[in-house]
Amino acid sequence: MRAVFLCQECATHYLPPEGLEYGDGPASPVWCSVCQARAAALGIPEPALARMLALRAAEQQARPAADEPRRPDVRPSRPARTRRAGTGPGTRSRLG
Question: How far is CA 38 from CA 7, 9, 34, 55, in A?
């Protein structure tokens, strides 16, 4: 399963190549290709911490569900009790 990333600049969801490599250079897990090209033209480096966090989140998302422990089924074995008609404080007499 491939991870879908969120561009930190324009908030667009994008799907980079699997190896994070375009034909003309590396892909960014932080910026989409348009924002990455704009940042490169302005000489803005990619934030290393943001790159590490994005890659780690993608790895966790791609990890198979078999690695996670299964929670036991805790559904009740019978339906919940409901109030029965004629019982409760509304039917008692103050004099009683």
Answer: 13, 10, 6, 21
pTM over 0.70: no
The yes-or-no verdict on residue 42 having pLDDT over 70 is yes
Residue 93 lies in a domain: no
Burial code (b: 16+ CB inside 10 Å, e: under 16) for 34-61 equals ebbeebeeeeeeeeeeebeebeeebeee
Which is higher by pLDDT, 76 or 35?
35
Q: Structural domain tally of the chain?
A: 1
**Does 51 fall in a domain?**
yes
Which runs of consecutive H residues, i.e. helices, occur in 1-96?
Answer: 33-42, 48-62
